[in-house]
Amino acid sequence: MTAIPARVASEVNARREDLASLLQQMIRIPTLNPPGLRYREFCDLVAARLEGTGFQVEFIRAHGAPGDSDAHPRWNLVARREGVGPGECVHFNSHHDVVEVGQGWTRDPFAAEREGDRIYGRGSCDMKGGLATSIIAAEAFLAAVPDFRGAVEISSVADEESGGFAGAAFLARAGYFSPERVQHVIIPEPLHKDRICLGHRGVWWAEIETRGVIAHGSMPFLGDSAIRHMSRVLEELERVLLPRLEARTTAMPVIPEPARRSTLNLNSIHGGQPEPDASYTGLPTPCVADRCRLILDRRFLLEEGIDLVKGEVVEILEELRRTHPGFDYGIRDLFQVLPAMTDREAPVVRATARAIESVFGRPAEYVVSPGTYDQKHVVGIGGVESCIAYGPGILDLAHQPDEWISVTDMEESARVMALVLADLLPARA
Question: Residue 313: which of 231, 237, 211 has the closest Cα?
């Protein structure tokens, strides 16, 4: 083992228990999104830690962004540590929001219980474990290579789970991910400790509304049910579109294997009268539904274009309008992200591959995420092309009950991250 890898390994190993403790502190702040709880408290925790090792810290509130309010302000943190001379900047970007707890837990989701090598809790895997790991990696690197050139940045951002518009997107529009400021970005999402995630599939969310005519429920023949019209939409999606998508595969190394196909999820459906307030205990009134809305979650491949993705759905709706009397519809975009995949020859990819092979003694595996994450904003808005996701944790545990992460995996990933820093931010000659 050469001098720098040996020093990095020693410095990370010395911080193993500190790494576990830091993650536990993070989990115990329940940064639930929605509605966006305790973001500033979490940023304060991270800031106190980073300021202790010489980072300059900024707090940035995403005023005017979706979700931001005085009751639930969208706070972000960006910390920067300059080296002894000019050089490039490596930025670790993590999100601090976590999804709802859900049912099925056998442990307190915010107690951060440790059992052997595992730490349990909501956000342990996705992705407070990755944030804690990047902080320890940076500290170990600073101790092992104190005379580095360039800069290290660490961010903790809001709302990745709901699109990232108050987090990474807000920062990107404000110039924090400009190529002049930042040259390489690592997003420590839980994609397994020996894998480099190059990008993600595309996504299109849309709302379809079918329209009908209200009438008394005892005389439905005087109305026109929007729910029945929507049933025809569902039937055609099942008959025409889903088999077509199932036949499409991609050269992108998406994990898990079934996600290498195009997919369509029917996210939600609402028809007829609005759901009554929980305090109401009576029956609904007898009416024919004059409206029905369906939310589509379409995940698509690099080989597909967004015009094709949208056009296939519109084609089905137009055919129904031609063939079914009274059928009428509206459709509107809710959200879209194009597929992204960083070139394997990008500097951050090559440096991470070298570090993985050094730590684990085997070549890195290259993967693509089935869902999107903040790379879409770093690349799409910020313009930083040398961007990947790499971090500890098992992807399948994200958003699950009894979510957990391995301390050993975090420690080994911290060694990889610190070696990437040593590779891209060399010591002064």
Answer: 237
Q: Please report, for residues 270, 276, 294, 313, the alpha-carbon distance to residue 226 in angstroms, rounded to integers and kept in the order given.
A: 10, 19, 11, 18
Residues 116-164 have pLDDT tens digits of 999 999 999 999 999 999 999 999 999 999 999 999 999 999 999 999 9
Domain limits, CATH 3.30.70.360, in the chain: 202-336
**Angle, vertex CA 404, rays to CA 263 and CA 59, nearest 5:** 85
Q: 11, 97, 312, 412: which one is catalytic?
A: 97
337 CB-contact burial (10 Å; exposed 0-12 / middle 13-18 / buried 19+): buried
Whether the model pTM is above 0.70? yes
The per-residue pLDDT for 25 is 98
pLDDT computed for residue 100 by the predictor: 96
pLDDT for 330 equals 98
The rounded mean pLDDT for the chain is 96
160 is catalytic: yes
Q: Indicate the class that CATH gives domain 3-200+339-424.
A: alpha beta
pLDDT surpasses 80 at 1: no
Name the segment(s) of the chain with CATH classification 3.40.630.10: 3-200+339-424
CA separation for the pair 92, 55 (Å, rounded): 13
d(CA 292, CA 271): 4
Tokens 């944030």 belong to: 131
- From start to end of 62-136, where are the E strands? 75-82, 89-95, 114-115, 118-120
Q: Does the annotation mark 97 as catalytic? A: yes
- DSSP, res 65: S
Structure tokens at 73: 């302000």
Which residue is catalytic, options 160, 194, 209, 403? 160
Instruction: Give the E-state strand segments of 248-375 in sequence order.
Output: 263-271, 291-300, 329-337, 340-341, 365-369
**CA distances from residue 312 to 269, 308, 375 in whole angstroms, order as listed:** 20, 6, 27
pLDDT category, 58, cuts 50, 70, 90? very high
Residue 196: in which H helix or E strand, if any?
strand 195-200
Q: Does domain 202-336 have CATH number 3.30.70.360?
A: yes
Show the tokens assigned to 202: 């595309």
